[in-house]
Amino acid sequence: MTDDRAKKAILARRQRFIAAAMLSTVLVGCERNESPRVCLSTNGDFSDPVQALQDLESRLQQDVDAAFQPIEDADAVLDSFANIGADLTAAKSKLDPKKLMVEVQKIIGGGAADLAGLELDDQSRPIVQDRIRKLEALVKCIEEVDVKATDLASRLSDAAPKVALFAAKGLARFQSKIKAPFGFSSEDKKKAEEDKARFVAKVDDFKVKAAEWQNRIVNAPAKGKDVAARLAKLR
């Protein structure tokens, strides 16, 4: 392993450890129903902590998927071009697969394909356009993977205090109703207990997903390099 690769590997492990440690530490106090002040480290007015947690999770999930899904689905793209000759024949297209692969290599090399010059027929057009679109998305994903991984690792670390804030506010809201000496019926308190249990489960689910995101973030750059090498061999 070169010095550069060794440094990157150490940095990736460090990022994963810091994110996991931060997320675990700040949430444990909240789950024990300690004072919300123990966990509040992010400014902001979150009137609905349950929805705020859901929104944060949705944004992170969407951004991680957008950043890495093309690389993770690369096998399908590679197979689609490995089999394109047979697929064009089955579609009764007259397009020469060798000419198409010349244009494919232009995309892989960072250029643009000249599809107009291929004079696609009706049989080949939908097949070629769909696969070229997915290939372009994959190549772009590979080009940006290092930057996206660094950015998302930072965002995931930044999310830890926010999750703690949402957890603290959510638990405090339910606890205030559950322990109130008057003003709420037994049915209200029972509902609050059920809502609290669902909320705690949601916080636990976020922790599981955060670990999954961190794993994808750490592994994506290496996967990108592997896919790039495989793309270069397409002929």
Structural features, described:
It contains nine helices and no strands. The protein is an all-alpha fold and 235 residues long. It has a domain at 77-134. It is elongated. Mean pLDDT is 83; it is low at 18-46.
Biggest β-sheet: count, sense, barrel? Answer: none
Shape: elongated
Order of helices and strands: HHHHHHHHH
Q: How many H/I helices?
A: 9
Compose a concise summary of this entry.
The protein is mainly α. It is 81% helix and 0% strand.
Short descriptors:
235 residues; mainly alpha; 9 helices; elongated
Which helices and strands appear, and what pairs or packs with what?
Blueprint: H1 3-31, H2 36-39, H3 49-72, H4 74-82, H5 84-90, H6 97-108, H7 115-118, H8 125-178, H9 186-232
